[in-house]
Amino acid sequence: MDISRLVEEAFFAKKAAYAPYSGFKVGAALLAASGRVFHGCNVENASYGLSVCAERVAVFNAVSAGERCFKAIAVVSDSEEYCRPCGACRQVISEFGSDILIVMADNKGNFEVKKISELLPYSFTLA
Ligand code: THU
Fold first, then answer.
1. Which of 36, 64, 74, 121 is deepest in the core (most CB within 10 A)?
2. Does the annotation mark 112 as catalytic?
3. Distance 40 CA to ligand 1 centre (A)
4. Where are any strands of DSSP class E within 1-127?
């Protein structure tokens, strides 16, 4: 699958975003080595701190389906700026490999790609 298709998948995932508090809808699409794509959206809560980002929902969705090997994750929002994963999501993505590509897109579908190891150098691991 090419990267722009993965970005389209992330826009599809964003449709399910539940963001009544921030109004900031985010979608993520995670490409597994198997070729399967897993979607995630942000899910907010009235107890704000319980809200979960789209990227982590996508990772947990994939891992709970038995996937552990990932190639890339695309992240989109309605912003004109590229959507950057937060620190917590960077750590969660890092758990599954340092070469995973992070595709950060704007609301028009333009994107920038970095490896997770560039976005979170010296990540915490038990290795
Ligand atoms: N959010 C994400 O889902 N992913 C990001 O990369 C950045 C932030 C969500 C969390 C919250 O629901 C909303 O965006 C505003 O911070």
1. 74
2. no
3. 11
4. 26-32, 37-41, 70-77, 101-105, 111-115
